[in-house]
């Protein structure tokens, strides 16, 4: 795709991207490996995905890593995911943030249910870089319904009226624009409780690629698909309004 589409992304139409990173288990199964091997590979590719989106001129990337419903999985799998999250938050992201000021990492979701060590690391990371031109939100113990309930309770506590604006401000994602594009890997056409408030007018792209195989080519395909869409936000096309 090269410089042509890099310029395209710089036009500001594609500022905020969110991804449902699905397919780790199937990736492992295909290779006769334990599901945890899929999660390991899935975590390892995030670095490259971040790099490519930054090169393309996207400013916000929101990644669905663990849902409020994923606790239903076998304990060994949940423990493996939590350990993996700790490893990345502690080593990889800490080092990255120490060496660069252009990236901020935030966690969205209910941190209170996370293992204590992981929760503390997440808070430490969030406090390292507050204002940066590129923001990566990691959704850990995130559920869209729980987020809306949380936001509504915040407003009640503060005695604020329930308006769209106030609710948006009380969401975990406050500060990140609503996603222009939501990508789901692994081929399933469903939302799975991800950004159900913020995604009201997002463009969706579903890819069959399993998350651990997601790379530059897929990213470019998704970006091209996004630019081929006409967003109307409930209105009509400008050329039709003149007729
Ligand atoms: C996504 O991959 C990762 C998490 C939900 C934690 P899955 O583990 O859901 O992979 P599949 O969908 O079973 O292949
Ligand atoms: C969505 O994937 C959650 C994440 C990618 C973290 P799931 O694998 O949990 O979704 P369902 O169960 O297939 O809807
Ligand atoms: Mg899945």
Produce a short descriptive summary.
The protein is an alpha/beta fold and 243 residues long. The chain has helices at 2-9, 24-30, 35-44, 46-56, 75-99, 116-128, 144-158, 164-170, 216-228, 238-241; strands at 16-20, 60-67, 103-108, 134-142, 181-184, 203-206.
Can you tag this structure with a few keywords?
243 residues; alpha/beta; globular; binds magnesium ion
Commentary on this structure:
The chain is of the alpha/beta class. The protein contains 10 helices and 6 strands. The chain has helices at residues 2-9, 24-30, 35-44, 46-56, 75-99, 116-128, 144-158, 164-170, 216-228, 238-241, and strands spanning 16-20, 60-67, 103-108, 134-142, 181-184, 203-206. Strands 3-4-2-1-5-6 form a 6-stranded parallel β-sheet, sandwiched between helices. Helix 6 (116-128) links the parallel strand 3 and strand 4 (134-142). Helix 2 crosses helix 3 and helix 3 (35-44) runs parallel beside helix 5. The protein binds 3-methylbut-3-enyl trihydrogen diphosphate (2 copies) and magnesium ion.
């Amino acid at each position: 795709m090269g410089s042509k589409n890099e310029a395209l992304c710089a036009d500001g139409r594609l500022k905020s991207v969110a991804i449902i990173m699905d397919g780790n288990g199937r990736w492992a199964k295909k290779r006769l490996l334990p599901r945890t091997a899929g999660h390991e590979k899935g975590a390892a590719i995030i670095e490259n995905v971040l790099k490519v989106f930054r090169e393309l001129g996207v400013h916000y990337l929101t990644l669905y890593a663990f849902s409020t419903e994923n606790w239903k999985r076998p304990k060994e799998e949940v423990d493996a995911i939590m350990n993996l999250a700790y490893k990345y938050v502690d080593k990889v992201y800490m080092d990255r943030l120490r060496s660069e000021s252009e990236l901020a990492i935030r966690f969205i979701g209910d941190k209170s249910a996370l293992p204590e060590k992981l929760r503390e690391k997440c808070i430490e990371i969030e406090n390292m870089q507050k204002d940066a031109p590129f923001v990566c939100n990691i959704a850990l113990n995130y559920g869209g319904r729980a987020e809306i309930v949380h936001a509504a309770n915040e407003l009640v506590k503060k005695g604020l009226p329930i308006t769209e604006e106030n609710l948006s401000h009380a969401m975990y994602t406050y500060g990140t624009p609503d996603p222009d594009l939501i990508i789901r890997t692994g081929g399933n056409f469903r939302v799975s409780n991800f950004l159900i408030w913020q995604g009201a007018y997002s463009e969706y792209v579903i890819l069959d690629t399993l998350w651990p195989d997601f790379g530059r080519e897929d990213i470019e395909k998704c970006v091209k698909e996004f630019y081929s869409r006409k967003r109307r936000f409930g209105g009509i096309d400008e050329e039709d309004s003149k007729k």
